[in-house]
Amino acid sequence: MSEEEVKQQNIDQELEKSEVSEESQAKSHGEILKEQICEGRKIYTLSTSSVLMSSFTAGLELGFSYMMLCSMFYFFSDYLPETSLFKIIALVYPLGFILVVLGQSILFTEQTSLLTLPVLNRKHGLGSLLRIWGLVILGNLIGGWLIAFVMLWLGPQLHIFDTETIVKIGNHVADFSLPTILVSAILAGWMMGLLSWLVTSSKDTVSRIIIIFLITATMAFAGLHHSIIGNIEVFSAYLLGPEITLGRYLWVQSTALLGNAVGGAFFVALLKYRAFVNNVS
Q: Where does the sequence pass through the membrane (predicted)?
C-alpha cells in the first residue's frame, strides 16, 4: 500500500471516529466534516432528473427574496434615498434562502463546498464534480429565468413594485467592473460555504434560521454578488431596459458563478478539509 493510500485510510478512520454526541452542546470539526461529506455523497447518488428538479426548485424559491426586495425598495422609495434603500432590503433578502436551505433544495452556492468535499476525500472524481455543478447551475438558472418572467408581470399587476424598480435593482448589481464582481462573488461564495458548514453544526431549526439570516443579510447589506439571485436581478433588468445588454448579462453572470465557486470550494471546502487532515498522521 502506498503512502498516499495509507494517509487516506487514516483520514477515513478518523472520520469514522467522529460520532455525534447527543450530550455535547457543540459538534466537533470532525463531526461536521463527516456530516458534510455524507451529505455531499448523497447528492452524487441522485439521478440527473432529481438533481435538475431540486436545483430548478431552488431557483424558483429564491424568487421570493427577489419579490420582497423589489417590494420593499418600491414601498420606501418615496421616504428614503436610494443609497439607504439598497441597505434596508437586506432585511428581506434572506427569505428565499431560508426556504431553500430548510427545504433542502439544491442551491449551487450552498452546495459548492458540500460537493467538493467528497472529491477532496477521494470518494468522487473531478469529472463527477464538474458534471453535477453543471446540472445544479443549469437548474438554478432556469428556475431563476422562469420566476423572473413571473415577477415582471405580477409585480406591476399587484402594484407591489414597478418596472423602474426592477431596472434600478438590476443595474445596481451589474454596475461594477468584472474584477470587482469576481472578488465580491468569491466573498459571497465563501460566506455561503460557511453557511452550509454552520447549518450542519447547529442542532435546531431556530439556530439555522438565525445563521441563514445573519449570513445572507450581511451579503445583501455589503452588496456581495450571489450568482443565483443575482441572475434573477440582472436578467430581469436586461429584459426591460437598454442599460444591460445580453453580453453584459452573460459576463456578469459567468463572473459571479466563477467567483462563487472559488469562494466555496477553496476558502471553505479545501481549508476546512486540510485543517482536519493535517492533524491525521
A: 51-76, 88-108, 129-156, 176-197, 209-229, 249-271
In a domain, 247, yes or no: yes
pLDDT at 74: 98
For the domain that residue 224 is a member of, what is the CATH number? 1.20.1080.10
Read off the pLDDT of residues 63-92 as tens digits, 9 standing for 90 and up: 999 999 999 999 999 999 999 999 999 999
pLDDT of residue 234: 98
Separation CA 44–CA 197 (nearest Å): 18
- Give the cell for residue 43: 447528492
Mean pLDDT of 36-41: 95
Cell of 154: 405580477
Q: Is 257 part of a structural domain of the chain?
A: yes
Identify residue 132 by its one-letter amino acid code: I
Burial level of 266, CB count in 10 A (0-12/13-18/19+)? middle
Domain count, the chain: 1
Kind and range of the H or E run holding 128: helix 126-158
Supply the pLDDT for residue 7: 64
Place of cell 421570493: 64
Range of the domain at 44: 29-277
pLDDT range class, residue 253, cuts 50, 70, 90: very high
Q: How far is CA 7 from CA 244, 274, 275, in A?
A: 51, 13, 15
Q: Which amino acid is at 193?
A: G
Q: State the DSSP code for 204.
A: S
Can you list the positions of beta strands (E) in the chain? none
